[in-house]
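Input record (one chain):
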Amino acid sequence: MTASAPDPIVPDSESRGLVAALPAAWRPYLLTARFDRPIGAWLLFWPGAWAIALAAGWPAGGGGLRWDLILWFALGSLAMRGAGCVYNDIVDRDLDRRVERTRNRPLASGAMSLKAAWAWLGALSLVGLVVLVQLNLTAAIVAVASLGAVAAYPFMKRITWWPQAWLGLVFSWAALVGWPAVTGTIDPPMLLLYAGSIGWVIGYDTIYALQDIEDDALAGVKSSARALGRHARLGVGLFYLWAVAMWAAAFWMIRPEPLALAALLPVALHCCWQVFALRTADVGDALAKFRSNRMAGLLMFAACVVVGTTA
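The corresponding structure, as predicted from the sequence alone:
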């Protein structure tokens, strides 16, 4: 079967939307931070939003949904995902030149200087600092503790066949911050929510990595998609099953009733659809299924709101 052509927004979206309307000198900054592709910011945001919503049902949570925290987390996710992408491109600029999908990134192509990239990283990090000071001490300490894992991530594809597992640790970290931002404490449901999010991230990022299997093999880049090979669909399914199981355990601790678990049915069905409808050899389909996790995150958020505010 012939793979479909990749979405034209990857890797070059300079001729589309907001990016095309901006002065040419500004475009490398938006592209390096991936502001033209907000899916990453959504995926970073959702675990924190889940934790904030679910923590409302814990005794120390107060019972009300903290929309102020959710808005701060949204801003923080946008800024820190951008900062993470800039840092990733700084580290991977040589590898990016060897992969078809990434060779036109501003640093890899020479459209942006290394000095400008470091300055842009600093500016985005300052926005993250503004968000950090809005948090209580416990949540702020947990947030700062993520920096080591974030800094190590770009090197994982050179070290392990499972860089997606490390990404799971990093992209789920907001759950560890959002919960104490509400309660001021570290509690078992938070850890279960985090564990489930890790499985979810490994699953969707394995789908994402299906786009690059051939180029990654030529460049010597490791990934879970390459490690799983023809068993990629099964692997994704097992990681999603782990995610739903951990989330169900977290919900049960908040509200030990079958109806609480029923709130997970929409997101569980969405994950099943991704697995069974996935065409592993189709680049365009892999990208579409990956992006559909924005909806999976929304469905999980709705479930957390229901359980957290009715406990």
